[in-house]
Amino acid sequence: MWRIFGGRKREAELDEELQAHIDIDAARLEAEGLTREEAARQARYAFGSRALVAEQTRESWGARWLTGVRQDLEYAVRSARRTPAFSAAVALSLAMGIGAATVVFSVADTVYLRPLPYPAPHELMFVAMRLFHLEMVLSPDYVAWRKDHSAFRELAAMQFHGGNPATLGGKDPAEVRVTRVSYNFITALGVSPAMGRNFEPGEELPNGHKAALLTDALWRTRFRSQAAVVGQNITLDGVAYQVIGVLPRSFIMPLEVPADILTPLAIEPAISHHDRSLASWTVIGRLRPGVTQAQAFANLQLLFRASKADAPEIFRNDVSVMVEPLAERMAGNARTLLLVLAGAVGCLLLIACANVANLLLARWSARSRELAVRAAIGARRGRLVRQLLTETALYCAAGSAAGMALLAFGLRAVVYFAAGSLPRLNEVKADERVFGIALGVSLLTMLLFGVLPALRAGRVDVQTVLQRSGRPGITGGYRAARRALVAIEVALSVVLLWGAALLLETLWRIEHDRLGFEPEHVMSVSIPLPNSSAAKANRKVLTEAMLANIRRIPGVTAASWGECTPLTGGSEGATFTRSDRPLPEPWHRGDTIAGCAIGPEYFQASGVRLIRGRAFAGSDYDPPQTLAIINEALARQYFADEDPIGHQIDGHQNGGWKTIIGVAADSKNQGLNQPPAPQMFLNDMVLYPGSDMAFVVRYVGAKPLFTGAVRASLREIDPGLLARFQSLDQAIGRMSAGSRFNGVLVGSFAAMAFLMAVVGVYGVLAFAVAQRSPEIGIRMALGAGPLSMQGLVLKEGAVLVTIGIVLGSAMSLIAGRYLKTLLYDISATDLRTYMAVIFAIGIAAMIAAWIPARRAASLDPTVTLRDS
Amino acid sequence: MVDYLLVNRIDLLHGTLDLMILQTLQWGPLHGHGIGQAIRASSRDAFQVEHGSLYPALHRLERRGWLAAEWKMSEANRRARYYRLTAKGKKQLLEEQSKWKTLVRAVAQTMKPIRE
Q1: Which stretches of A581-678 are DSSP H helices?
Q2: Residue A180: which H helix or E strand, with range?
Q3: What is the DSSP string of A450-509?
Q4: What does the DSSP 8-state code read for residue B48?
Q5: What pLDDT shows up at residue A469?
Q6: Are strands A280-287 and A134-138 parallel, antiparallel or unpaired?
Q7: Are B31 and A20 an interchain contact pair (Cβ–Cβ within 8 Å)?
Q8: What's the N-to-C CA distance of chain B in angstroms?
Q9: With contact defined as beta carbons under 8 Å apart, do A365 and A477 qualify?
Q10: Of A500, A568, A496, A567, which is closest to residue A739 (Cα–Cα)?
């Protein structure tokens, strides 16, 4: 490459010098009496191969003005350029392997290895009690523990499932996410505000000063980075808060909690387990220096014993406390997914390495004569190995560079598609760490595929090779090694293809499972209500006015209020009870059923079918909570052999017993990858007073027209409110995003792997046919038919593929254990999937084997024998 | 002396061709074709220099500074690359000649007992 300028002229001069030689020779011959043409012909003949002489002369250039590595590189570049297709195949295989591996390992690095973005992150612990499958701390216990603990420097609390949407008031109301935290929350994390001050202890009292901390992002977008905002008042859901500070730009909420604004929790210092304001919080502790996790756990157990003594009816024997490093907690359930991805990408990288090693071995065995000649004219073995390693390194560098280009693109794609399935994605970025990983992966690749073959190729036996001169094929070509590599490639692609097939089948099942409703043209509209009592009292009037407005919008065919959509269970869980059975004791562990208040037209609007009985009528709502419509899941579970209609259920909730008047079809009320949960619909406007005002609307026509009309009518009623829209199609898309991510990613890995394996099979057999063409020629000359030659090659291919498939199936069985949790409605040992994958690989590989086999059959014995 | 012979067969061969080229050029500049013809003639057809060895050797010697090259018109009225000995090359030739004589003497001595 550095020869481009000087090189051209030099090459031209060499060419002319050699041409001059021939011309002078021709002139001499002509003077001896030959005709001009004959003289020219003989001179050319006498000179021999001009290209060869030029090449050998060129090599003598290098000997002096390029030495060592530079010379090797020069040589490697030249030999790579001579075979562009081969070089591209090698570099591309490496780029795919390295790029994909680096993407996945970068994500894994962020999730597992990178310390949390807080000072002394190892001191941060997630603290919780395990209660009803939940991991949280009840508010009275938090208050008691914070007072009495000895293991922690700070024990901070955050609203359970924080990040509630709220309306940020102003000229142009906007939705923001607010998370309530204890006053010491950011202190515990080791963070202090970039501007302004932190919360003060008094601010977390129920009647304390209403203070708010803004995140940097919100401050920049919404408040245009104005420093003057500190000290000003803002309104959240109609309540005034004073902005006391802005968080640093680097601040990241722990545990993926979304937040634009932090406000203090309302903590009643004298709260007890018997108060109605009992709440659940997420608690994070920072250990005192030198305190271990075990010591902290012992301390908590002591505190928990006191809690138990205070409220034995809540804390049964199966409630326990836990302390877990915050980093592990945040990595959490991504472990399986990352393991699967790392396994998949590891397979892919191995296949790429095997493929490249295979290509290189084939090439080097074809070049064994060249290597032998170099050894004969004095190149030492170490020199040859160095030369081959330089070539390897060159390919590796080209592959890595292309891989890095893929990486930038791949990381962005992963962050986009994996949203929701992987934690800490907002911290993933292409930085020097990622570069380091890419470098590591590349070096690993080079070691895997480069060094061993190079060492082997360096050990040329000069004698043997030169004696067989002219027939490079018979030198063996590392046949065993290359076949083993191909078998491994096939095995690994069986694993990948099988995993991808299962994940894609999962995706298909999730998306095509019976939803139980018609999601097209259904929109859920929710309007957060201000927390003020006036708004609460006004709720009925507001809801009815809004519903009337929505019904007047052209295109709307049905509309109803409803606390749930077909994809959610409802606002409140209740313990199932029925009037003809004895009531269970309080706090018993009965099954929880979902409850949801709906309006009369809910079923028409949502598209959920009513199977039996009737829907609520407009006159059923006074008094409310007297009637119930249950879903099929509830009917199946609690009224297996009975007709549920007429029975009374849910006695100890508001309003007493509710009489069942209908049964509705099941819908995916727990999300797409869960079976429908038992659910009851009640004749009321709202069960949980904190619910948003919510409507389910079926409409025909364009979405923007609809949303625009709703916003306009809402402004008429109350300009301070804002409406959120979600079409059910959208919601379904978001819910299947995780499965789609798994399927698409592993699927594309598998596709690459499949391609490389098929190319590998083809390459090995095509090379074998080329090598053995003299042998095949002899056999055919001795009377073997073309078909038997074809069979010979096919058999070789079949043996390789069979070994690969058997090996791959065994590996799949092991991999199945990890894949299990990512699947839905299909078993990891699903036989049909196995058969399909084996069939696909078998067919593709045999087609790849058939092409060289046909070539073997069509060889002309006279030609092959003459050539050898 | 015997050790010297065993050092490297290839070196000896290379060295021999180099020596013959230097030797040929002491009578004046010549192009590649001429050098090949001259070596062949002076050895009475015993040495048939392959072009694949001759041209690399010429370029190598040029790089070492023992030869210099320039484009001139040949007797056949064609532009050709003429090589001539440099001062360094002349010194090298003397050195090589004395080396060669030592070598020949040594070989001759080694051979004697076998003949008897």
Answers
A1: 602-606, 632-638
A2: strand A174-181
A3: IIHHHHHHH---HHHHHHTTT-GGGG--SHHHHHHHHHHHHHHHHHHHHHHHHHHHHHHH
A4: -
A5: 46
A6: antiparallel
A7: yes
A8: 21
A9: yes
A10: A500
CB A63 within 8 A of CB B14: no
CB contact under 8 A, A64 and B60: yes
| Res A385: pLDDT | 75
A756: helix, coil or strand?
helix
Interface of B with A in 17-46 (CB under 8 A): 31-34
Mean pLDDT of chain A, nearest integer: 81
Secondary structure in 3-state letters for A545-598: HHHHHHHHCCCEEEEEEECCCCCCCCCEEEECCECCCCCCCCCCCCCEEEEEEE
Burial class (CB in 10 A: 0-12, 13-18, 19+), A669: buried
Chain A to chain B Cβ contacts (< 8 Å): 71
pLDDT, tens only, A67-116: 566 667 777 788 778 777 778 878 888 888 888 888 887 877 777 777 77
pLDDT band at residue A771 under the 50/70/90 scheme: confident
Do residues A298 and A138 lie in contact, with contact meaning Cβ atoms separated by under 8 Å? no
Using CA atoms in the order A617, A621, A625, A627, what is the torsion angle rounded to 10 degrees?
-20
Q: Which residues contact A611 (CB under 8 A, 6 or more apart)?
A: A632, A662, A663, A664, A665
Report the side by side order of strands in the sheet with B79-85.
B30-31, B79-85, B67-73
Both tokens assigned to A10? 């030099």
Alpha carbons A597 and A599: distance in angstroms, whole number:
7
Residue pair A544/A617 in contact (Cβ under 8 Å)? The answer is no
AA letter at A191: V
* Closest residue on chain A to B32 (Cα): A21
Residues A653, A716 contacting (CB under 8 angstroms): no
Q: What is the CB neighbour count within 10 angstroms for residue A678?
A: 21
Chain B environment of A59 (Cβ under 8 Å): 56
Nearest CA in chain B to A23: B78
CA–CA min distance A866, chain B (Å):
27
- Cα A672 to Cα A591: distance, rounded to the nearest angstrom: 21
User: Could you write out the DSSP letters of every residue in A684-752?
Assistant: SS-SSTTSPEEEEEEE-S-HHHHHHHHHHHHHHH-TT---EEEEHHHHHHHHTHHHHHHHHHHHHHHHH
The full set of domain ranges for chain B reads 2-115
For residue B52, which residues of chain A lie inside 8 Å, CB to CB?
Answer: 48, 52-53, 56
CATH number assigned to the domain covering B2-115: 1.10.10.10
- Cα distance between residue A26 and residue A44, in whole Å: 8
- Residues in A whose CB is inside 8 Å of some CB of B read 13-14, 16-18, 20-21, 23-25, 27-28, 47-48, 52-53, 56-57, 59-61, 63-65, 377-378
3-state helix, strand, coil in chain A (%, to 5): 55, 15, 30
Q: ipTM more than 0.95?
A: no
Q: Report the half-sphere exposure of A124 (CA within 13 A, side-chain side).
A: 25
Are A618 and A556 in contact, with CB atoms under 8 Å apart?
no
The pLDDT tens digits for A223-282 are 888 888 899 999 887 788 999 999 998 888 888 788 899 999 888 888 888 776 678 889
Contact A64, A85 (CB under 8 A): no
Question: Measured between alpha carbons, how far is A119 from A357 in angstroms, rounded to an integer?
Answer: 45
| Residues in Cβ contact with A160 at an 8 Å cutoff, skipping those fewer than 6 apart | A136, A279, A280, A281, A282
Query: What is the number of other CB atoms lying within 10 angstroms of the CB of residue A32?
Result: 8
In angstroms, the CA A500 to CA A742 distance is 8
Comparing C-alpha atoms, which of B27, B85, B16, B55 is closest to residue A21?
Answer: B55
What span, in angstroms and rounded, lies between the C-alpha atoms of A18 and A7? 17
B108 to chain A, minimum CA–CA distance in Å? 26
Report chain B residues whose CB lies below 8 A from the CB of A32.
Answer: none
